[in-house]
Amino acid sequence: MAVLAVPPLAVLAIAAASGIGLAQLAGVGMGIWGWITAVVCSACVFVRHRGLVSLSACVGFSYGLLHVISIERIEQIPHYDAMVSGQEFAVTVTGTVADEPRPLGSKIVRFSLRLESVSDHYEESKCAGKILVSLLDAERVPAYGDRLVIAGDLSIPQMPMNPGQFNLREWFFQQGISADFFAAQGGVLQSSPDQGNLCVATALRCRRWIQNQLTRGLEQDPATASVITAMVLGSRSETPDEIEDAFIGSGTMHIFAVSGLHVGLFGYLAWMFLKAFGLRRSVAIGLIIPGLIFYAFVTGLRPSACRATIMSVIILIGYLCDRVPSLPNSLGAAALVILFGDTLQILQPGFQLSFVVLGTIVGVAPFIRAPLQKFAEPDPFLPRSLMTVAQRVVLVAGRRAADIFSVSLAAWLGSVFLMLHHFQIAAPIAVLANCFLVPCAFAILFTSSVSLAVGSIAGEWGAVLCNNANWLIAKITVGLAAFFASLPGGGSRLVDDGGLGSMSVTVLHLEQGGGCSHLRVNGGSEWMVDAGHGTDTREVLKPYLQWRGIVELDGMLLTHADAGHVGGAPWLHSLLRPETTIISEQPYRSPTFQSFAGDESTAEFELASAGREFALGSGCIVRILYPPEGATIAIADDQAIVAQIDHLGWRILLMSDAGFATEKWLLDHCRYLDSDVLVKGRHRSDYSGLPEFLSAVSPGAVVSTNASFPKGESIPDQWRAAVEAKGIMLFDQAQTGAVEIKVNDGSLVVSGYANGQKKLLRR
Predict the structure, then answer these.
(1) Number of Cα atoms under 13 Å in the Cβ half of residue 22
(2) Predicted model pTM
(3) Which residues, 6 or more positions from 304, have their beta carbon under 8 angstroms from its beta carbon?
(4) What percent helix, strand, coil does the chain show, rounded to 5?
(5) What architecture is the 503-762 domain classified under in CATH?
(6) Could you say which DSSP state residue 537 is in?
(7) What is the 3-state secondary structure of 211-235?
(8) DSSP H or E segment with residue 555
(9) How far is CA 694 from CA 232, 672, 691, in A?
(10) CA 582 – CA 608 distance, rounded (Å)
(11) What residue segments make up the domains of the chain, in order of their start?
(12) Any residues with CB less than 8 A from the CB of 247 and at least 6 apart, and which?
């Protein structure tokens, strides 16, 4: 009887997950794992007492074999190993557009391409992988199902080069994408339409029609319209960052994007509608199942929607067969089906959250709900027929509130550890926020359904009327998300201070060159030196600030008016409101900076010139060495502020993009250039890093940017050799990524984030 009580499908699902995990860790090829699977399955056939244990072993190793096949499909693309090391190859690819192309900015469209072949200058290779294509200035935007021949550059995203940065390579692997492909204008050599799946193409046409219907009359407020389409269809490309941040901060991102919640709400809405017509349960379920499948297609077959649809269909089939389904068995069956189709899904946070959260809701929510409902229950000796209307309303409302709160709390308890692991965010305010935002999500989905129905019958005016009602609900939803995100417990993140010591400087790595560094002094003083490009704010600066838990700045030091150094300053200032902004007294001709400086909300600027000192607290001083007061300098890189950080006797020299002329002036006018670490960029058009200047500074380590374009901002080979010949350790940021400089009383440690390079200096 104990064996019969074990849910067999749940056990098999656990075995499948274990087999996939073992195959992932083993890292062996398909041949070796195939032999292992054959041996295990053969042994299980001849076991005397065959049962669930033997079947679990067969299932586990078989799913492990499927996972190895998936990995080899990703890695079979030509030049894969070379691309992992950072190389890029010019190739011609042939394949079929696998999803609906979406805009990325004003000139680029992005889509997945299911490969048939890849050819370079030497040979053509057949492969069945998938790549992510970025197409620039296309004469004709491809459509789903188009068979294309495209010429462009094939590469693989590199590992994160900065703390907190999104791991794009890991995301590619989880999605089964082999490589990134960029094609310039004229890259599409051939195009043959209508080569895709007819069902998917029909669903995408329905999706476009639904999106147009739901946004009629909302052209004046595209941001709110994008919230509606995101919550109904999963289309988030046009949603502003601040709206997404509100849902992330309130812990309700699952409400904003199409997820299992929306599939469940859609099924519940369909159930209510069909029951209103008096249909039997079996008939209603028979209609709901294809409806859920259609909704999954319309949302673009997103993994979250597909997972929830498979779960729901399996559970509903149990009811259709007049059986009360066992949830562990139903979840196990859903997991087996999903992983059979794509074993890589088990690596995705969404897959893990779907099963863990649903299991926690079913297992934990009843124990939370029971004591809560007692607060709404009337006197047990009071007959229901004698209850007043007010008492009945209180009873029903109390029970519904207990249901919603218990489910919300159970869901948060089930997700919190996975959320911390994957996203470093917990947001306990989500327990309360879900109680308000889930009904809002249901209202938006319901009103959208009414809009589609009324618009089809009554014409455009009916759709516009419903859409404006939906606009109001979406506005309220966004406002509630922002409100809960602003409360204590909103946006709570697992902050990593990195053991930064009594003072630290983190020199961030920017792909396009430029400069941005974070300076932290023990006691909470936070400063930024430069702000990078405007395009760096979302991918580098914002995740770094969140990872460090920085919510306000004491000050900014902007070295010069290069767009790669001040482009992100307006964004940084509006977000963190630094009390002090230090700039050079040289004229700033950058339009970006002039607009920033002319903003009335901007704080007063402190002008810096040689000889000035700024105390940052706890014994840390920033000493300005250059430019001299009253000097007239034409070139922006020659205007750059040169500053020396002095803390506990340790010195860090920040050279920005200064070149030959600045170094000569410093050698002639500064007596104390010696520093423990030299941090430098590259002058765009002049030589920098003079041998005599390096001798005067005499650093133990040099941190240098190394941009591939333009050529003048890359590290010359002869200069690299000269630095190493002097016994100075060079931290090339093209290899190290961000570099952290940590200062304590008796030691200074310089370490590269990406490659682990390290230099320890002691007194």
Answers:
(1) 17
(2) 0.83
(3) 257, 258, 259, 260, 350, 354
(4) 50, 20, 35
(5) 4-Layer Sandwich (3.60)
(6) I
(7) HHHHCCCCCCCHHHHHHHHHHHHCC
(8) strand 555-558
(9) 60, 13, 5
(10) 6
(11) 2-75, 80-196, 201-347+425-486, 503-762
(12) 253, 255, 256, 481, 485
Residue in 433, 432, 422, 441 with CA at minimum distance from that of residue 351: 422
More confident residue, 598 or 111: 111
- 576-588 pLDDT tens trace: 888 888 888 766 6
Other CB atoms within 10 A of residue 472 CB: 12
Each residue of 497-514: pLDDT tens digit? 555 568 899 999 998 778
Alpha-carbon distance 494 to 332, whole Å? 32
Sign of CA dihedral 438, 440, 445, 446: positive
Identity (one letter) of the amino acid at 206? C
Residue found under tokens 């073992």: 22
CA quadruple 194, 197, 203, 207: dihedral sign: negative
Query: Of 65, 308, 553, nearest to 544 (Cα)?
Result: 553
- In angstroms, the CA 571 to CA 532 distance is 11
Q: Per-residue pLDDT tens for 641-679?
A: 999 999 988 999 999 888 888 999 999 888 889 999 999
Q: How far apart are CA 714 and CA 157, in angstroms?
A: 21
CATH of span 80-196: 2.40.50
